[in-house]
Design a protein that fits this description.
It comes from Rhodosorus marinus. It holds the Pfam family DUF3326. This is DUF3326 domain-containing protein. The strands form five sheets. This protein has a four-stranded parallel β-sheet, sandwiched between helices. It has a three-stranded parallel β-sheet with strand order 11-12-13, with helices on both faces. It contains eleven helices and 13 strands. Helix 4 links the parallel strand 4 and strand 5. The chain has a domain of about 180 residues: Rossmann fold, CATH 3.40.50. Helix 3 runs parallel beside helix 9, helix 4 crosses helix 8 and helix 5 packs across helix 7. With about 350 residues, it is α/β, with parallel strands linked by helices.
């Protein structure tokens, strides 16, 4: 299940609002491979036992057949290292460390330790003409050095908290009301991509933002980001059982059970967001493409425009039905009121 980040997806473009769909799809498959944009809901999260929480860059490499995924269950959970941006002010630093302590004490999640970057990360936000969010990082070397120090001390997953600049007030209000692209999502993706690419470990990011004044106009889809001082709880919950990365070229008969792209039966995406490298790689390797019509986005890359065969459904309820029919060996055409006669394909 893929819902690309920063494209204003009507389902999955806010605060964990794709989680109900992920829960449904997970019930119809053996394993649901998805990513933090689908699973993260700031202070809200939901453990899905058969969902694999995979950072976006790792998901693309997995789809390309370069990386395999080794589930942490049932052996042991990850040891999470927490990277804090040097620019975080003291009060917010305390809040984020309290989250880590709470997750350790209340949920038993292994947040092994934290480290502070030697320089501020200097995140900047941008928006393309078509309404897609992206961003830049002023000191990427500081991020990598800090994350690497935690990995060298035995951490097997990395959570990053970086200070983000204030958003445009009108755009932020529109997002809170459920009608605008998440302006910080693109920059968040860059941070986690960088760590995963360089260190080959699971990574996810939580922005450090000042709490907003209470408002009755907040959409339910964005409400999870209004509940507290930090977005870190869902990140730590997701990383605790995120699959480890295994380079496919190193696999052998002695390698513990892993999941590779060849084992993916279907990829489910918004209908207008079919152009990502992960989607194209999985379709090329034989996965069915299922597109969801009511999950609209700010872009327009349809399967028709790419010449891709697709099973088009209206919503995630129908997508789950397609998966269940396939899983149980039921011909989809047999579920329609009329079915064509068997064709002669021997000539």
């Amino acid at each position: 299940m893929i819902v690309p980040t920063g494209i204003g997806a009507s389902i999955g473009g806010f605060a964990g609002d794709a989680l109900p769909s992920a829960r449904l799809l997970a019930s119809a498959v053996d394993n649901l491979v998805t990513h933090p944009n689908v699973m993260n809901g700031a202070m809200v999260y939901w453990p899905i036992p058969n969902a694999l929480y995979v950072e976006g860059f790792a998901l693309d490499r997995f789809a390309a057949g370069e990386w395999a995924l080794r589930p942490s269950r049932p052996t042991r959970s990850n040891r999470i290292g927490l990277v804090l941006d040097r620019a975080i002010k003291e009060d917010m630093r305390i809040r984020h460390l309290q989250v880590a302590d709470a997750m350790r004490a209340s949920l038993g999640i292994d947040v092994s330790g934290y480290a502070v970057t030697d320089k501020p990360l200097e995140v900047e936000l941008s928006m393309t003409a078509d309404g897609t969010s992206w961003g830049t990082l002023g000191n990427p070397d500081s991020l990598i050095a800090c994350a690497r120090s935690l990995v060298e001390k035995g951490c097997t997953a990395i959570a990053v908290v970086a200070v983000f600049p204030e958003e445009d007030e009108d755009h932020l209000q529109a997002y809170r009301e459920g009608s605008a692209v998440d302006a910080i999502a693109g920059a968040e993706a860059i941070i986690s991509h960088l760590v995963t690419r360089e260190l080959e470990v699971p990574c996810a990011h939580a922005p450090c933002l000042q709490p907003l004044d209470a408002s009755e106009d907040v959409s339910p889809k964005a409400a999870a980001e209004e509940l507290g001082y930090t977005f870190l709880p869902c990140v730590l919950a997701g990383l605790s059982n995120a699959p480890q990365i295994q380079i496919c070229s190193t696999l052998s008969s002695k390698t513990p059970s892993v999941l590779t792209a060849g084992g993916v039966n279907a990829v489910i995406v918004p209908k207008t967001a079919c152009g990502g490298s992960g989607v194209l790689s999985l379709v090329a390797s034989g996965a069915k493409l299922i597109t969801v019509g009511n999950n609209t986005t700010s872009i327009d890359v349809t399967p028709e425009s790419l010449g891709l065969p697709a099973i088009e459904v209206s919503n995630y309820l129908e997508a789950a039905g397609v998966l269940l029919a396939d899983r149980n060996g039921i011909l989809g055409a047999a579920l329609d009121p009329k079915i064509r006669r068997i064709p002669n394909i021997g000539q």
